[in-house]
Amino acid sequence: MKTLIQCFVLIFSLHSMECAFTCDYKYSLLAKGWFKLNVVPETWHDARLRCSLQGAVLASPTSSAMAAEMKHTMKNFFLQDTEIFTGIHATFSSGSYYTVDGVPLSKIPLVWANDEPDNFGNKERCITFNSNGSAADRMCEEPRPYICFRSGKKEVLTNKCGTPDDGYHYYEKTKKCYKFHRAPGTFDHAHFVCSAENGHLAIINSEDEAEVLRKVFADNPAAWIPGNFWKDIAFIGFHDWGSWGDWRTIHGETLKEAGYDKFSGGEPNNATTGEHCGAIYRSALLDDLWCDKPAAFICEKDPAYPPICQPTADEEIDIDERFNNKVE
Ligand SMILES: *[C@@H]1O[C@H](CO)[C@@H](O)[C@H](O)[C@H]1NC(C)=O
Ligand SMILES: *[C@@H]1O[C@H](CO)[C@@H](O)[C@H](O)[C@H]1NC(C)=O
Ligand SMILES: [Ca+2]
Ligand SMILES: [Ca+2]
Ligand SMILES: [Ca+2]
């Protein structure tokens, strides 16, 4: 079920407005889309992934409107002498630059900084952009801030889970949303993905929640999960900080404090090389698992986080229904 969340737009200028989608993104009429500056520097690959997991792309100055909005966004955050990553990259093959959504370099009106691009040391495969509007090629591995961009109208279809991502399903029993990720990842990767989706690795706080996770797991039979890995185990949000046996949720509580500490028979067993990360079997009973061995994982999301910017009453017909479903 989709609810149309309309925007409440305060037009002070082309650049300044408040709107829906999620409140951490700002709408630009000029560039016809949603912008979010990520100030914490990340590698190009992580930047691309984080934007993608939010239903956006790593922003590129593909038009004068995009370039203007990107410069404006940086200046708003006082990023004056910083180069941010764009979505323009040659990570598939050297020298073949495209945006993450396939626009070739030849169609992008870039202004290069002095002596750029130089593919220094034959190691530069990602394009940066500064608040002066100049571009340069840089190493993809060197972390930088970046902007995520979601193209489209001000009205964004979000589901009951407060996201356009239909992988999240709402469960009345816990008043939370869950997404089962079939593509396997290490514990680190799983934590990254859930966080980027504005959730967290699932934390079991009650028998009821264990029952919900059994259902979530049952909706993903092993036969439907592609790949050559163990399908009857999924990472959730607990670990021991590398000190075996002191199990804590990723939010710092002991399992008992969190409300559920039932390990499966014979677990935790610290198998072979040592197991420091948390998982569940299909039974929703707990297991300790190798952090670096890719497994499926389950994210949990509060339907009210991050907030959807609140439209005015006369602009929004379905808003009552939506807010009635929120967690107190
Ligand atoms: C931006 O332009 C100004 C003036 O031309 C220059 O002094 C400054 O170094 C430039 N900043 C960057 C990050 O290129
Ligand atoms: C867990 O396993 C690792 C690797 O075999 C071992 O070094 C460590 O001492 C074990 N810890 C405990 C508490 O059993
Ligand atoms: Ca360079
Ligand atoms: Ca929970
Ligand atoms: Ca184990």
From TrEMBL:
Keywords: Disulfide bond, Signal
The name this protein goes by in its record: C-type lectin domain-containing protein
SMART domains attached to this UniProt entry: CLECT
Domain C-type lectin, residue spans: 35-149, 173-300
Name of the encoding gene: HaOG202233
CDD domains for this protein: CLECT
Top-rank lineage group of the source organism: Eukaryota
Signal peptide coordinates: 1-19
Keyword Disulfide bond: yes
Pfam families per UniProt: Lectin_C
InterPro entries to which the protein is assigned, alphabetical: C-type_lectin-like, C-type_lectin-like/link_sf, C-type_lectin/snaclec_domain, C-type_lectin_CS, CTDL_fold
